[in-house]
Amino acid sequence: MQQALAAHSGERESAPSVLIVDDSQSEIFLVEAILRSHQYETHSITDPTRVLQEASSILPEVILLDVSMPEVDGFEICAQLKADPVLREIPVLFLTSMDDIEDKVKGFKVGGSDYLIKPVDPAELLARVSTHIKLRQAQLDLASKNRLLKEKILDLEEIHLALFDSEARTKAVLDNAAVGIAVLDSNGIYEMINDRWAEMFCYTREEFMDMHCWDIMHPDFIDIHKKTMEQLRSGDMGKTYSVKQFRRKDGSEFWGGHWVSSRLDRNDTCNGFVCVISDLTLQRKAENELRLAHTVFETSNEALLVSDSDNRIIMVNPAFTRITGYRSEQVIGKGPAILKSGRHDKDFYHQMWEELRKKDHWQGEIWNRRQSGEVYPQWLSISVIRQQNGSVANYVTAFSDITERKRAEEVLRRQALYDPLTQLPNRILFDERLRAALARARRQKTIVALFFIDLDDLKAINDSLGHLGGDQALQLVADCIGKCLRQEDVAARLGGDEFAVVLTDISKVEQVFPVVNRLLSSLAATNCPNSNKALSASIGIALFPQHGDNVETLIRTADDAMYTAKQLGKKRYYLAEGQ
Amino acid sequence: MADNTGDKKAELLATITKHLVNIYALEPEQVEEMLHLSAMGLAETLEQAKHALADNDMQVLSAAAHKVKGILLGVGLKQEAEHAGLIEASARQGKEAAYPQMVTQLLESVQPLLEE
Hints:
The structure holds 2 protein chains of 2 kinds.
Chain A: H1 2-10, E1 17-21, H2 25-36, E2 41-45, H3 51-58, E3 62-66, H4 74-83, E4 92-96, H5 101-109, E5 114-117, H6 122-176, E6 180-185, E7 190-193, H7 195-201, H8 205-208, H9 219-234, E8 239-247, E9 253-264, E10 270-279, H10 281-299, E11 303-308, E12 313-316, H11 318-324, H12 328-331, H13 346-359, E13 361-369, E14 375-386, E15 392-401, H14 403-417, H15 427-444, E16 447-455, H16 458-484, E17 490-495, E18 498-506, H17 512-524, E19 537-544, H18 551-567, E20 573-575
Parallel strand pairs in A: 1-2, 1-3, 3-4, 4-5, 19-20
Antiparallel strand pairs in A: 6-7, 6-10, 8-9, 9-10, 11-12, 11-15, 13-14, 14-15, 16-18, 16-19, 17-18
Helix pairs in contact in A: 16-17
Chain B: H1 2-24, H2 28-55, H3 58-74, H4 78-93, H5 99-109, H6 111-114
């Protein structure tokens, strides 16, 4: 018994405690004497109504409970103890002098653990108390182990769940990856592929399981890939990237970026490979397009200027430098306004931006200034590049120097509208100017005078001086006319020896006569080339609105007046009559 | 009579002491304490038994006899305990018996202990 208690005590630091409940002090004394002599700690009460309170306070290892007590019997006390969540596990041993089997059954039914018949036998008491303490301890140990086991199971369940989640996540990542991913064994045979891999090569997952990784490669790349695998297998290389040509099931080929890395086991030994392939078809196409765009940008004869949403220049091409004289580093970060010539007013730019805002495009002729200060004409177009949300991303401006074109146009214009001999406007331009003069006079209520001038005796001049002399005579007439007119007046050669003059902004008819007299005098003071004979002309005058309110009527009237002047003896003017 | 009583008491105490030492290995002072507690318990319980007799309360009489039986068994007085057990069983079963005489006889049998 001592050994049992010692062994029991060895498992705990304090002496095991026993609560004795009996209404007889002498019986308590005997039980306590036995237990204390074997190093048990005892507590006793004679009032059965205090059992729960006392037990809760000391939490004994065993309760020895007398069955027959006044007021409340041991069975009821035991039932109360077993109903208490804290005390229910404490073994209850009944002390009784009863040996009735029914009472024993009743005791076990209410949760009693054992019986001791009074008067208690010391050896039996010690043995039963020790046994139940050990049992209790074993139960506690078991409960503790059970708790630990449950915790372990919970941990394992959590690990399992985490693993499951992790696997699910991994699968989700693999199946939604934009690149093809494959896991291979050490011989390069497929173990696993993702959806993208199958889709990329047009094989099914099942077909891949019987294939080697090089079965999808262009033959030119197989040997080098096998060498790479050997290096990865031996540990000479951890991972590698290269661009290779791959072959689909239907034989079509594409370029792909190929990552290969070794898969390591616990001992860091390569036991397989992980391959990642990205289809570079679109990338290559984009690169080619970009290269092409870059080439176009760099080699274009048109100046190209790209600015950001704040219209700050971010790039220009060599043609820009060639045309403007500005190098890219001189203009990047600045606004295109540095190119302004000052020739256009605010309204011009306002309209340009308004159209850009509405149509995302503007094109037109504009005058800008080179770095040298030279102002020159450009044909310029601006396009707005917008983001997906509609905001402005960039402005792309293209322009060309149209100085030469303008010059050629001017030559053509002069050829079309001016008389090459006298440099005076021809009939076409004259007609246009006369119409404009009439329109203005109509608005301003002023008078327009039309002179129809015919050189006298041109045939005689040609005959005596030749056509060259005739031409020189016509040039002299043109000079005379030019000298006699104001800046705003118009002179023209209508053909042969016919000239015309338009005087504008006349308020009174009297203003016409000094001019025509000055012209006749000037001609009279000018000799024919290589001759002493003076030049002369007959001049017919028609007035707007007096002699007609349209071009045709006025010209006809002036022409008629000129003939009248001829008939009257030449070297004179004649003002049309009437109206 | 006095000598006879004294012998009887000595014999009873010797029986009890021998029982307590042999069975429970009590030290002399523990024996003294046990005698004192048992005497007090017996006196108190026998008094309850007398009141029960007076009240003709067989249930209380049976319980008192049961307790007396336990005390007596504790001190090794088996014959006296059997006497108490007889009262307990008869009273519990509601048997007709000469309970006053039986209680008096029990009281007399343990009188030497009560004098301790």
